[in-house]
Write a structure and sequence with these properties.
The protein has 342 residues and is of the alpha+beta class. It has nine helices and eight strands. Strands 5, 6, 7 and 8 form a four-stranded antiparallel sheet that branches. α1 packs antiparallel against α2 and α4 packs antiparallel against α6.
Length: 342
């Protein structure tokens, strides 16, 4: 309990004491008592009640989240130009009164759900898009009174700034903004753009009237049942297209994997063939080099062929029959000379 409330309670008690003292004095006089002896008691109680009541009328405690507008009969304008700041304040008793306004954040909601908005029932904003489709917009406005403009708000709106300013301005701005968009734009890619446009326009209007827009929330947009059914069918079709695209992509990946495997096998076969061909080439080159060396050896030593032939004969060969046109293995004249000398 603050001091102002405490003084107000004491003032009320003092008036009860005054009434009690009057009744007590009356009862005493009726029993034969002297009225003068009780007069001081009644006058003292009356003075205490008047003093406490006067102080109670002048003391005002302003909470931190509020500001006080002083309505004054002592000024030509009818009110003080500056609002009372938080704390214990004093105004002229019986000539000035204080109207308290909250400066804390307030939320005003317009919703199609009956339990969500400030007004029961369907309180959503009905609007039409640029292509004639009807939409219902659920929105919330978070705002506060500008502490420096409390007096102006009182002069212009008093306590009607919610129903007289915030609500109708929100409805009108939302309808005007929705009319500049097609229903498909609102449904898909331009919803955030619509919300930003409403917030900017609403902020300008509230600032001009002494309010501060803290946030605008586009809660939901509802379409007609017919258009909602069209949207559902479109989503189903898009999901089917996406599924088919995924299947095609999967098949392409499988085909690419098979292609890569086949390419790898083909590359391996080519590498194997090239290796085999190189091996044959190396072998052929080695054989050719060997034949070249053999030919060079036969050129310098013709008898080497016969010698090699004889070396390859079995050891038990004693007699050989040769065709009449075959050359001799050895030069017969030399053999004959060798036989004569022996």
């Amino acid at each position: 309990m603050n001091v102002a409330n405490l003084v107000s309670v004491l003032a009320s008690i003092s008036w009860l004491l005054l009434i009690g003292s009057i009744l007590f004095a009356g009862a005493s006089v009726a029993r034969g008592g002297r009225a003068g002896s009780y007069a001081s008691l009644v006058i003292g109680a009356l003075a205490l009640a008047l003093v406490l009541s006067t102080i109670s009328q002048g003391l005002v405690f302003i909470q931190p989240e509020t500001r006080g507008v002083v309505i004054s009969a002592l000024r030509q304008t009818g009110l003080r130009s500056q609002a009372l700041q938080p704390g214990l304040r004093f105004v002229t008793p019986f000539f000035e009164d204080v109207v308290v306004y909250p400066i804390a954040k307030q939320t005003y909601t317009m919703s199609g759900a009956s339990t969500e908005g400030q007004i029961s029932g369907d309180d959503s904003i009905v609007a039409r898009t640029s292509d004639g489709q009807e939409v219902r917009i659920d929105a919330s406005v978070i705002f506060s009174i500008d502490p420096s403009a409390v007096v102006d708000v009182h002069v212009e709106w008093q306590n009607r700034y919610v129903d007289g300013l915030v609500r109708p301005q929100l409805r009108g701005i939302a309808r005007d903004s929705a009319a500049r968009y097609g229903v498909e734009d609102i449904y898909s890619i331009r919803r955030d753009e619509l919300a930003s446009e409403i917030e900017e326009a609403l902020n300008v209007t509230l600032v001009e009237n002494g309010l501060i827009l803290d946030d605008f929330v586009l809660r939901n947009i509802t379409f007609t049942p017919e258009y909602a059914a069209v949207i559902e069918q479109k989503q189903i079709a898009e999901q089917e297209v996406q599924r088919q695209a995924f299947v095609v992509k999967q098949r392409e990946q499988e085909a690419e994997q098979l292609r890569q495997v086949s390419q790898g096998e083909a590359d391996a076969a080519v590498i194997a063939s090239e290796g085999k061909a190189k091996a044959i080439l190396v072998e052929a080159e080695a054989q050719a080099e060997a034949l070249t060396k053999i030919g060079d050896a036969l050129t310098t030593n013709p008898d080497l062929l016969q010698y090699t032939y004889v070396q390859e004969l079995s050891e038990d060969v004693k007699v050989m029959l040769l065709p009449s046109n075959s050359p001799y293995l050895f030069n017969l004249p030399e053999l004959e000379g060798l036989s004569t000398s022996e």
